Automatic annotation (TrEMBL), chain A:
Pfam families: CENP-T_C. Belongs to the CENP-T/CNN1 family. InterPro entries: CENP-T (IPR028255), CENP-T/H4_C (IPR035425), Histone-fold (IPR009072). This is CENPT protein. Residues 23-118 form the CENP-T/Histone H4 histone fold domain. It comes from the Eukaryota. GO terms for molecular function: DNA binding; protein heterodimerization activity. It is found in: Chromosome; Nucleus. The gene is Cenpt.
TrEMBL record, chain B:
One of its GO terms (cellular component) is kinetochore. InterPro entries: CENP-W, CENP-W/WIP1, Histone-fold. This is CENPW protein. Belongs to the CENP-W/WIP1 family. PANTHER family: CENTROMERE PROTEIN W (PTHR34832). It is found in: Chromosome, Centromere, Kinetochore; Nucleus. Coiled coil: none annotated. The keyword Hydrolase does not apply. It comes from Baryphthengus martii.
């Protein structure tokens, strides 16, 4: 009675563990779509692989930076200000290119509504502070 | 090409950062749902801009090499240039 018990779990567990250990990442189809949208040129398949690899590295670097900023501020939580400082250092946000212009340019309307206060009629501001 | 998907994979972005830095919290309290979403899209915005930069660099490289398509070496060179800006 011992033998069948032993034989069973080996293939199953290996498959399941592999699934779990694979790390989360942005779907490659999305990266592909965004990249080809910006690049406006045909892109070879290998080049996409490079782009994916770069994105992975980018996220690693990003989390390192965010950690450094929040630790420096004595917090454990990443806040908006940290991201803004980061983007200033990346030279994405400058005097000529403030944050909200970038938001307006790159993010869809639903997100913009969350990020930028909009004045509506009746002297109300959304989102209220 | 015109109708690029614009929604952000928010939970994925969170998971990625969580994976790298388990102890780090993205501003999130249960009550501040907007806050939570805000940061999600900020990261997303940063990612979009990163891809944009990469795309522009790769395109310039391809033009310089008189190539009609983006080849891996163009992408690699572009990535190196952007690393120079800390990425």
């Amino acid at each position: 009675p011992l033998q069948p018990l032993r034989a069973k779990p080996v293939p199953k567990s290996s498959g399941a563990s592999r699934r779990k250990t694979c790390e989360p990442e942005v779907p490659s189809s999305l990266i592909k779509k965004i990249f080809s949208h910006y690049v406006k040129m045909p892109v070879s398949r290998d080049a996409f692989k490079i782009v994916e690899k770069c994105s992975k590295r980018y996220f690693k670097q990003l989390s390192d930076d965010l950690e450094a900023y929040t630790n420096h501020a004595g917090r454990k939580t990443v806040e908006m200000a940290d991201l803004e400082v980061l983007m200033r250092r990346q030279k994405l946000v400058t005097e000529k290119m403030p944050m909200h212009v970038l938001i307006e340019r790159y993010l869809p309307l639903e997100y913009r509504k969350l990020l930028i206060p909009i004045a509506i009629s009746g002297n109300k501001v959304i989102p209220c502070k | 090409r015109r109708n690029m998907r614009r929604t952000a994979p928010r939970s994925t972005l969170r998971k990625i950062i969580k994976n790298h830095k388990p102890q780090l919290r993205l501003a999130a309290d249960v009550d501040l749902l907007v806050r939570k979403e805000r940061d999600g899209c900020r990261v997303h915005l940063n990612f979009l801009l990163f891809l944009h930069r990469l795309a522009e660099e790769a395109r310039t490289n391809a033009f310089e090499n008189k190539s009609k398509i983006i080849k891996p070496e163009h992408a690699v060179a572009a990535a190196k240039v952007i690393k120079h800006f800390k990425y």
